[in-house]
Each structure stands twice: as C-alpha cells, then as structure tokens.
Amino acid sequence: MVKMKEELKHAIVKSGKFLWNILPLLVATMLLLSLVNTLVPASFYSKIFSSNPFLDSFVGGLIGSISAGNPMVSYIFGGELLEQGVSLIAVTAFIVSWVTVGTIQFPAEAMLLGKRFAVVRNILSFVFSMITAAVTVFIVNIIGRL
Amino acid sequence: MAEKSRASLYFMFGVIVVYVVVALIDAEKAVASVDFFFALLIKIAPLMLLIFSLMVIANYYLDEKIISRWFTGRKGVTRWLITIVAGILSSGPIYMWYPLLAQLKEKGLGYGYLACFMYNRAIKIPLLPVMIAYFGLRYVLVLTVVMIMMSYLQGIIAQKLMDGYA
Questions:
Q1: Could you tell me if B153 lies within 8 Å of chain A, comparing CB atoms?
Q2: Confidence at residue A102, expressed as pLDDT on a 0 to 100 scale
Q3: Co-location of A73 and A30 in the same domain
Q4: Residues A139/B146, Cβ–Cβ less than 8 Å
C-alpha cells in the first residue's frame, strides 16, 4: 500500500514536472495559432484556386497545411469553397491537411517528438492529404454512378 | 530537458516579439488575437486536466514491458487497431498530446504508431454531424474509411523512414 502511494506520488510529480517544463511552448503555440486565426481572413482562401483539380489539390493541401484552428472552421471554409466552384478534390485535400499537417505546431512537435520525425510525419501527411483526396473523390464518384 | 525548456522560452519570446510588431502595425488585430488566445485557453483548461490525468495513469501503470506487450507483441493488427481507435477517440488540439506521446515514445512506442495515431486525430467524431451537413453522409463515410486506411499506410512508411532513429 505504501509502495503504491509512493509510486502514485512519483507518477503525479513526474507528470506535473513534464507539463510545467513544456508550458511556455504550449502557451507560445496557442498565441501563434490565435494570431494566424485573426490575421488570415476567410476571403483569402477562395481567391487562390484554379480549375485544375491536381494543382488545386496541391494548393488545397498547402493552404490546409499552413492553416490552423478548429477543424469545424475548415469544414465551413470547405463548404464555401465548394459553393464557389472549387473542386471537391481540392477541398478534401484542404480539410484533411488542415488537421493532419501541423506547420505552426512544428516547433513543439520537433522538440518533443524529434526533428526528423516531425519533418517525416508532416511531409507524409501533406502528400497523403492529396492521395486521400484523390481516392475519396474517386470512390464517391463511383458510388454516385451506381 | 533543460535545453528543451530554454528553446521553449526562446520560442515564447519570439512569438511575443511578433505580437509586439503586429500591435505596432494594427493594435486591433493584436487585441483580437489575445482575446482569441484567452478563449482558447478557457476551452483548453479542462482538457489539460484530462491530459494530466492520462499522463499520471500512463506513468503509474505503463512501463516498457506493458508497452512492449501492447505495441510490439505478435498481434500486429490489434496493435494498429488500438492506435487507430486511440487516435480517433483522442480530443483537443494535437499539441496538447505531444507530452503524452513523447512519454510513450520514451517507453518504446514506435514512430509508425505515433504517426498513425496523429493522422487518425483528423477524424473527429463529435464534428461528424457538421461535416455531414456540409458534404453529405456518403462523402463523410468514404473519407473516414479512406483516412483510416491511409493512417495505417502512413504509419508503415513513417516507421520505415525512421528505422534506426531512437
């Protein structure tokens, strides 16, 4: 029983210390996210798409990668982009990369999980946002024809 | 860890400098950003408690042997499924999960599983109704299934690319 209490105390102290040490990083990341969220207007996103689905998926993935915030915001932007004639493949790449690629969070990810891993994961996530978009739209179109 | 703490403080300082520059150019935008930050902070505070609790549980119950049994045992499919489900069920911003993921990595969780977990965080169950409202049920179902499959592929590739790195 005493040993269990000591182990629990150790676990609490260890976790507390860890969180305390990374607190400046978390606060700085949140401050940066808030700034990007305020400075980048919604209209910016609808002006930069062409009509080429492949190029658009690249652009969509790129914009989603550098954007940040609640995923719901990306759905709303995505919905608006669709209404303005932007292709579904571009919008899909946009909403997928919005959550899977963390450009703004990159410093925190690199510091805590390793720089190489952060680079590999983010590049893969960007590439996969385009692949996911292409596969999803392809399947949705096939199902739509059935 | 001391080096990481110092780097965190430099990062924090850099962000404050950016805020000062923005404030000098457009004070309203800077104030709006600070307001957004506090709103985010209030939203995230309960999540911090959840993360802290999970970290305590992880530190108390999990050791390298248990992690090895979960993630590096023979049941490869189960291991991946656990990672996928955990990624989908985890909530809040990803950076809140970095500390726990870093600890799990230290306890032996492979990079591929970390990548898979992080990719699956893109699937937000509480937000699915909103997504369905915008894009339709068929699209959302297909996207969710495709993303789960892609998370596995990404995990495999990430693991291969990270082989040999501690």
A1: yes
A2: 87
A3: no
A4: yes
Using CB atoms, which residue from B105, B127, B142 is nearest to A72?
B127
Residues of B within 8 A of A12 (CB-CB) are: 56
Residue numbers in B near A99 (CB within 8 A): 121-122, 124
Q: What is the pLDDT of residues B86-114, one digit of tens each?
A: 888 776 677 778 888 888 888 778 899 99
Interface predicted TM-score (ipTM) of this complex, two decimals: 0.76
Using CA atoms, how far residue A3 sits from A8, B9, B77, B133, in Å, is 9, 37, 36, 53
Number of domains, chain A: 2
A34 and A66 part of one domain: no
For residue B163, which residues of chain A lie inside 8 Å, CB to CB?
Answer: none
Does the predicted model carry a pTM greater than 0.80?
no
